[in-house]
Amino acid sequence: MVGIITYGVYIPRYRIKVEEIARVWGANASDITGGLGVFEKSVPDMDEDAATIAVEAARNALLRRKVDPKDIGAVYVGSESHPYAVKPTACTVGEAIGATPTMTAADLEFACKAGTAGMQICMGLVKSGMIKYGLAIGSDVSQGAPGDALEYTAAAGGAAYIIGNDDPIATINHTCSFTTDTPDFWRREGQNYPRHGGRFTGDPGYFKHVKGASNLLLEQTKKTPKDFTYAVFHQPNAKFPQKVAKDLGFSKEQITPGLAVPRLGNTYSGASPIGLAATLDIAKPGDTIFVCSFGSGAGSDAFDITVTDAIKDKINRGAAPSVEKLLQNPIYLDYAKYAKHKGKLVMQV
Amino acid sequence: MRDVAVIGVGCTKFGEHWDRSFRDLFVEAGALALEDAKLSGEKIDAMYVGNMSAGRFIEQEHIGALIADYSGMATRHIPATRVEAACASGGLAFRQAVIAVASGMEDIVVAAGVEKMTDVEPGASTDALTGAADREWEGFVGATFPGLYAMIATDYMHKYHMTREQLAQVAVKNHFNGARNPIAQFPNEITLETVMKSTMVAEPLRLFDCSPITDGAAAVIVAPLERAREFTDTPIKVLATAQASDSIALHDRRDISTMDASVAAGQRAFKMAKLTHKDINMVEVHDCFSIAEICAIEDLGFCKKGTAGKFTADGETALGGKIPVNTSGGLKACGHPVGATGIKQVYEIVQQLRGDAGRRQVENAKIGMTHNVGGTGATVAVHILGRV
Amino acid sequence: MTVARFWRKIPQRYNLVGTKCTTCGRHFFPPRTFCPDCRRNGKIVDHKFAGFGTVVTYTVIQTEPDNFSSPGPYVLAIIKLDEGPQMTTQIICDPKETKIGMRVKSIFRKIATDGESGIIHYGTKFVPVE
Predict the structure, then answer these.
(1) Are B50 and B150 in a shared domain?
(2) Within this chain, do residues B92 and B115 fall inside the same structural domain, yes or no?
(3) Per-residue pLDDT of chain B (388 residues; tens, 9 = 90+)
(4) Do the chains contact at C120 and A83, CB–CB below 8 Å?
(5) Chain C: which residues have CB within 8 Å of chain A?
(6) Is A29 contained in some domain?
């Protein structure tokens, strides 16, 4: 049965508080935190990018379980902040974990759901017997335009999943997707910052696709929300996943462990993968997890996951930091340092 | 093997010479040396020139030929050789000239050093100097040249508990001496406070712990001792020449704050001259950074390991002290045109031994020593010179 | 640094692949293909270092070299890897918290970038072990 063999997360240590960003733009901090449910977001160090984050997440996955990197037959990195427009992050990751040269690789982009798309591709390659293990990573150092609403939440982080069918710690019983051509949020080639359709990103964007994929999954698996121990939804802020969970019939308790966004921000391609990781960090054998990601453009990938005994016997979760651990002891930056870290200051070339 | 003597010396003023080119500097130094030796150019048999990085600073290689040409020697087709060992290029050029004469291969040989560092932007200058270290495994991973010496300082201070103030006294003393040296880049004395308040460069080293970017050239002429009086009334005998190497990277050394190459070269020099440190009246050491002088005087045996800080603070290395160190002002106050420094050190010792050192004259100067280092200690050249 | 020169040492830069002399047991990082002790009698093989070490000495550099990805001030140190060799590296930590003898472990970061359009030079730095 195909599933998750091991997983790893990486979150940079720096943070900026929403109230500090609000201070710079003259906005009311409590309106923002109240509206978004986000209090602070992660900021990459000056020498970090989506590739370094992806490597650290992958290495953390390998710390938890003995997997021979040479058995990894495919690497997919999903991001909307790949360091190169042309030259795959997946190759750097493959090299840095020792999986090269006998592997296939490619980079993916699908806004915030490129990581889960990678997981689906790996599932297909494993199920068909083409590869033994596949590595799917969602990693981002996303940018929000200065003064734009997205600046409050665009964060940095990533999670890596090794997919296989040989004693998985969680089986992926079923996956399905709901995809349309919807221009809710986009970034043209060469532009520094994305643009978005404001409130259009809500119902025609996030809600339509998350509900679309979630209902499709429930229908295809003949399950109901009550059949799941936990649920993880894409989290661009805290409000959207709370609302969609409620609308679909999931409870607050089900989504709480996987809701990292209040203290992390939106890690874009890393968001749902990190939410799932936070849930796996505390899950027990037999727990069932419902996952539905969302990527603007737009689409959602839904997964029906069951945690197995292998989560206790076959991996050592303590060998790599949990999401909770990575969220602790942050180093806070003021806006000026944040701008320097995010490359928003135009330097002399 | 014949005895060798220095028969003439010349040195340009050291400083930022916006109006003078690489060739201008060399020619001036060479002319001064020839005049000092009352020698005409046709008598020169060979030239050795120390230069670290003309390729990076002025995009010029083939320095031997260039120097011979612009000194008017090329038409006589004399052998002209560039020697490079980063900041020890000058010391090595002197050694090569001494060997050429000692072996009997050549008679009258010029040993020169020249560096023109201000024809590039400051960042490019710093980057070129990083070539003295291990570019691949030190420079590329974030080490700067001051950073490497700063790590030596951290290690030394951790082991021997030298204070920051004691270290700073090296620069204060060198500026005192430099203020009395007409060719020095910095003519001003400084106080301890100047050093301690200057901008931090790489902890614990501050701006005033670091030698500057400098343009300059120096040239000395060597000849067989037996012929020296044809040219000068004050021949200075080369009592010893020694050179040693060590790993290029600081991380590969046996002990971070001991330059084993200095120890080796020093011992070889003393052995060749049949002398000990007690016989030396003054020494020019390689103070590219203040900590380098601290390590040098211990490595050469002038004081015990770990005591150089107190030794300096007690004034033992000052002009009137037990062993005057860097009467020229050292690299710090005199300036450090990289390839020229090793030759300038010989120039200074010769001035001292002739009694021509003016306000920085050491009394009864009979025997002097020079110590020239490349990189963080990967090459060291030591020479001992004495009045005849 | 040109593309070929950077690429040739990727296993060293990304994965701390050094060498070991199986004749005398000495480890080398950065790698050496010639053992200074055994010389021609030395049999050299690749060795992947575990990535743990101890700080031997350090400094805080105020101004970084050109193209370096971490602007100053940053900690530069010589560390001794557990297997024996010493290497020079940046340590990512509060300069005030750096101590001689501190335990460190390897992480993957950007070392330098060849300007706006050149390649990114990734490699290994170190962080304190918590």
Answers:
(1) no
(2) yes
(3) 999 999 999 999 999 999 999 999 999 999 999 999 999 999 999 999 999 999 999 999 999 999 999 998 888 999 999 999 999 999 999 999 999 999 999 999 999 999 999 999 888 999 999 999 999 999 999 999 999 999 999 999 999 999 999 999 999 999 999 999 999 999 999 999 999 999 999 999 999 999 999 999 999 999 999 999 999 999 999 999 999 999 999 999 999 999 999 999 999 999 999 999 999 999 999 999 999 999 999 999 999 999 999 999 999 999 999 999 999 999 999 999 999 999 999 999 999 999 999 999 999 999 999 999 999 999 999 999 999 9
(4) yes
(5) 10, 14-15, 69-71, 92, 107-111, 115-116, 119-120, 122, 125
(6) yes
Label residue A349 by pLDDT band (50, 70, 90): low
Q: Cα distance from C130 to chain B (closest Cα, Å)?
A: 23
Against chain C, the chains showing at least 3 CB pairs within 8 Å are A, B
Neighbour count for residue A336 (Cβ, 10 Å): 12
B336 is catalytic: yes
Share of chain A above pLDDT 70, in %: 100
Question: Which domain CATH number covers A251?
Answer: 3.40.47.10
Question: Would you say B388 and B228 are in contact if contact means Cβ atoms under 8 Å apart?
Answer: yes
What is the chain C residue with the closest CA to B128?
A: C65
Range(s) of the domain holding residue B332:
122-211+240-387
B37 and B145 inside one domain: no
Chain A residues with a Cβ under 8 Å from any Cβ in chain C: 45-49, 51-52, 55-56, 59, 83-84, 87, 92, 95-96, 98, 340, 349
Query: pLDDT tens, A3-61?
Result: 999 999 999 999 999 999 999 999 999 999 999 999 999 999 999 999 999 999 999 99
My answer on whether B221 and B80 are in the same domain is yes
A29-36 helix and A18-25 helix, angle to the nearest 10 degrees: 130
B155 contact C CB<8A = yes
Q: What is the mean pLDDT of residues C78-104?
A: 97
**pLDDT at residue C76, rounded to an integer:** 98
Overall number of domains in chain A? 1
Range of the domain at A300: 1-344
User: In this complex, do B137 and C30 lie within 8 Å of one another by their Cβ atoms?
Assistant: yes
| Chain B residues touching C63 at Cβ < 8 A | 144, 201
**B145 shares its domain with B279:** yes
Q: Do B199 and C77 touch (CB under 8 A)?
A: no
Distance CA B303, CA B309 (A): 10
With an 8 Å Cβ cutoff, are C110 and A47 in contact? yes
Residue located via tokens 């900026």: A16
Cβ within 8 Å, pair C108-A56: yes
User: Does residue A215 lie within any of the structural domains?
Assistant: yes
Output the pTM of the full model. Answer: 0.94
Q: How many domains does chain B have?
A: 2
ipTM for the predicted complex = 0.94
In DSSP notation, A134-196 reads EEEEEEEE----TTSGGGGTB-EEEEEEEEESSS-SEEEEEEEEEEEEE-SEE--TT-SS-EE
Looking at the structure, tell me whether residues B344 and B379 fall in a common domain.
yes
Identified catalytic residue from B175, B336, B371, B383: B336
Q: Please give the positions of A annotated as active site.
A: 80, 112, 234
Residues with Cβ within 8 Å of B186's Cβ and at least 6 positions away in sequence, in order, are B175, B178, B179, B212, B329, B332, B333, B334, B335
When scoring C14, C107, C108 by the number of chain A Cβ atoms within 10 A, the one with the most, hence best to mutate, is: C108
> If we measure between CA atoms, which residue out of B95, B148, B380 comes closest to residue B261?
B380
Does the residue A349 lie in any domain? no
The mean pLDDT of A74-92, rounded to a whole number, is 97
With contact defined as beta carbons under 8 Å apart, do A100 and A94 qualify? yes
Do B32 and B169 lie in a common domain? no
The domain spanning residue B359 has which CATH number?
3.40.47.10
- Sheet containing C27-28: give its strands across: C27-28, C17-21, C44-48
- A93 domain-assigned: yes
B163 and B88 together in one domain: no
Please name the residue of chain C whose CA is at the shortest distance from the CA of residue B148.
C59
Q: How many B-C residue pairs are in contact by the CB < 8 A criterion?
A: 92
Q: ω into residue C128 within 30 of 0, thus cis? A: no
Q: Which of C15, C107, C116 has the CB atom closest to A98's CB atom?
A: C15
